[in-house]
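Model the whole thing, not chain by chain.
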Amino acid sequence: MKVPTMAEMVAEGKTPEVLFWVGCAGSYDDRAKKITKAFVKLLNKANVDFAVLGTEESCTGDPAKRAGNEFLFQMQAMTNIEVLNSYEVKKIVTACPHCFNTLKNEYPDLGGNYQVLHHTEFLKTLLDEGRLTVEGGSFKGQRITFHDPCYLGRANDIYEAPRDLLRKLEVELIEMKRCKSEGLCCGAGGAQMFKDSEKGDKEIFVERTEDAMEVNPSIIATGCPFCNTMITDGVKNKEKEGEIKVLDIAEIIASAEDL
Amino acid sequence: MHFIPNILFAILLVVGVGFFVKNVKKIIRNIKLGKDLDRSDNSSERWKNMINIALGQSKMVRRPVSGILHIIVYAGFIIINIEVIEIIIDGLLGTHRVFAFAGGLYDFLIGSFEILAFLVLISVVIFWIRRMILKIPRFWNKEMTSWPKNDALNILYFEMVLMSLFLIMNAADFNLQQLGADHYIEAGSFPISKYIAGWLPQSEGALIFIERSAWWIHVIGIFIFLNYLYYSKHLHILLAFPNTYYANLKPKGELDNLQSVTNEVKMMLDPNADPFAAPAETDNDAEPEKFGASDATDLTWVQLMNAYTCTECGRCTSVCPANQTGKELSPRAIMMKTRDRIEEIGRNIDKNGSFIEDNKTLLDTISNEEIWACTSCNACVDACPVNIDPLSIIIDLRRYLVMEKSDAPQELNMTMTNIENNGAPWQYNQMDRLNWKDE
Ligand code: SF4
Ligand code: SF4
């Protein structure tokens, strides 16, 4: 696995095509790290000239902003922008819809102007340009349902890129009753990931997992490390770990390619 | 003696419209108590939204049953109001069916109004059944008790009565025309009311009495309804238009960056900044700006207009993940409480000339438990048929709690400390950020 850092690239006098923004979950969370690695394998396979910031990357500030701490958010944003601009970054890809939304929509105003792509969008262009080819392999014909991350879907109106990728794998793509702009949240957004939920009669991730279970999938596909955690918990809660897998689209493609 | 009805009508018209205008002015004043926000950009896209969403009801039909019924009531309401023009002229001049000279066209119009009125009546009855018999859950959340519940029913009853009066008036008129009564010239067609006509007494005197009573109660009803708007969720029939025009056009995921914070953060991060230099544009007497919102007047005018526009339909609450899983939070209640508070501030100003501190805030009615239950998923924003944004208010309240009161849930304080110290919401060393590569 080749994972060059921006600093190394610059030392060699090179500018990568794209910066891979790994994000906090992708860097530290054991489950999300697998998604990160699957995505890197795909980047390597397609010979994408990319780099990461490594230890120079810091939280985008999304959870702070959504928790109401605008100071902390802007401190994070401005520090990150300084790093990104010093490397003259033009294009960023990330596997986290929260980082994606923040970098794309909230950084420009503070001096950070980049072309920002979600990894499913980026993978789709790789496929469209013929830089990466996929075959369904073991996934062909499997019943897969896609859970729309709020920050990719409603927040940024991206519904088709992840679905197009699944179609390329010739899976049987089935939609939940609530999908796309009507998709139910997994319960993690708005900094909920980092706190217990308020008093209620149910956990949101259970409610959402039930939506998915209704359509009898063998895999619930996600495009967000936080959704992945929540839905995985939901499946465990229902004691269905044996029958239903929760996988990121990048993991599905990477494992279809035996990477 | 002869002119008394005309004079009475003129007085009614002036008083009815006068009160209405006075209240509209109040609403505009209250909305302007909100903070400035520039929404003068992209007028062509804004017009398009207004035409699609408010005029074209495009978001209503996402729920087809209530959407289509609503379109009938809405179209009926607008079209039947053409008839109100005739009613006003007849009332002032003492004429009867002054537009009758239009002949065939007039017959066609009156006929269509009758059919519409009948459809509206049926739709309104179905609305009532959905609310009161089927008890659709979004009409029965806990914020829908007392006034909000009665308000919704009042509107339905009003419409039922107005539409029935319109049809009864026409039925009596139809009979009088058949009898060849004086003054009741033969005009109009009565596809619906001719069936009612048979049930009415057939004496001329009684018919005139019924026709006149229905006419008067109908016009008085219209004026009452007009003035009822101010107190009611029915205000949306007017405010839906500006509200969709001025709605947010940016991606829903984008939260605004607080400019006041930007200035301070820049100062903190810039090693060359002179810490003693007076900030350029703030004058020294001005109170330091409050971060976020604790009261209705800390919100922007668009957020306040949102509150006045809310139809209390509950579509937002019915799709809210927090509400669906039994949490306190209801985005509709956020809008209703905001409206109640800005109204209260408005009444305070009416009474005292200018606002006198009442030691109340919006946070008296919106609890922390509600505020912290939101996942910022934007489902409420997406579902709202008139483009209201409850999430923006929730975020502004959080900003106040965190930046002014340091009043966040304990776990979130830890998360924020982690972000501050090691650049991640968890307690990991920033230097380990690339360790995944070799694991
Ligand atoms: S954004 Fe918040 S209030 Fe709106 S639907 Fe989602 S959780 Fe509920
Ligand atoms: S905010 Fe919108 S969706 Fe919610 S109750 Fe009001 S009008 Fe209905």
